[in-house]
Amino acid sequence: MDAPLRLPATQGTAGACWAAGAPGVRPRGSHFLKARRSKKAMILNKGTVYVAAVVLVPLICNRAWAQGKLGTMASPLKLTAGECKTCHPRYYQEWKQSYHARSVVAMQTGFKKYIITQELAKRRVLNRDELMGCLGCHAPVMRFAADEDLARLVQLVETDQRDALAGLNVDCVACHTLVASNHPEAKSAGKLGRQVYYGTIKNPVSAPHGTQYAAKMEKSEFCKPCHSYVTPADMKVDADWDIVCALTYDAWAAGPYGPKAKKAHLRECQSCHMEKKDGKAAEVASATIPMRKVSSHLFPGWHDAAVLQRAVEIYVSSKRGTKIGTAELTVTIDNKAGHRFPDT
Questions:
Q1: How many CB atoms lie within 10 A of CB 88?
Q2: Do residues 43 and 143 lie in contact, with contact meaning Cβ atoms separated by under 8 Å?
Q3: How far is Cα 16 from Cα 22, in angstroms, rounded to an integer?
Q4: 314: β partners
């Protein structure tokens, strides 16, 4: 396991304050945080709720440095979604509207709470593997980032600098190279001509990069690593805990459209969240690109009104109430989503 990430020496007295601080105290933006845990806590068990009260006491240190802007984060890889935009403008514009394009910004509040509570519990800063427990899905390319960049990302998260996090996401490289290759820990090539992109087109037109058909990208199992119950082993993150996060795959697998359903009823995640439409996979003036059934990259979900309307049917019935001037309403919600609703 990697050593805990330390703040760069250029960050002035913050590092020194951390070294001299009492247990449970570390630099956090414009202040330190010291934890006082409540003595009252219920044991986590069936039918019980774990309650832990944490009181955060700010200790001012190096305020001038911490309140300053730390700069915008960007992918540590040379190849990003920006390089794909030229030949795949449709996919790029759809992706830009999706939550995959703002996967770190969308989780910033939760990620901040996670970092604070874990560091208070461990009484140290989180190391690379522990941070990648979240970033492995929300910004998979960060496994290739330098320690200084990961430390800077933590500071941006903790100081709520969301705009500076917008450059980190689940982009084309994440799905079409890292995950699809079965080796997310292997750094992608630095040049387009040396990179293989995997996809769902069986006979792709010649491209400036390598192309390979990947049947698994049309199956729900492809989505499972980041939309399942806990941190999966195939993410290759060495941490001493699991992150209980997304539940959607598990709910789908146990639902009416999952693998146990009759063939006529089976629906993959992609059926709803990457619907196929007529279009061209690329737009290149020097090549003839055939019309095909191509997948949408909008990845619509609970945040899309049209998807919500299809996900449930609501029925309302009424009858006269037991008291004068009252009525009893019965609301029935029929879940058509194929998994829990609402869900992440």
A1: 22
A2: no
A3: 12
A4: 333
Residue 144 buriedness (CB in 10 A; 0-12 / 13-18 / 19+): middle
- Per-residue pLDDT reduced to its tens digit, 237-288: 555 556 667 789 999 999 999 999 998 999 999 999 999 999 999 998 888 9
Sign of CA dihedral 81, 87, 88, 90: positive
Domain match, 226 and 273 both:
yes
Query: How many domains does the chain fold into?
Result: 2
Query: Residue 39 belongs to what domain range?
Result: 9-300
CA distance readout (Å), 138 to 45, 110, 114, 148, 301: 30, 12, 14, 19, 16
Give yes or no: residues 237 and 96 share one domain: yes
Tokens of 331: 């609301």
pLDDT, tens digit (0-9, with 9 covering 90-100), for 88-97: 999 999 999 9
CB 178 within 8 A of CB 161: no
Burial class (CB in 10 A: 0-12, 13-18, 19+), 289: middle
Q: Taking the alpha carbons of 308, 312, 313, 316 in that order, is the dihedral positive or negative?
A: negative
pLDDT of residue 191: 75
Q: What is the pLDDT of residue 192?
A: 73
Residue among 21, 42, 46, 40 nearest 32 (CA): 21
Cis preceding-peptide flag for 342 (omega within 30 of 0): yes
Residues 318 and 272 in one domain: no
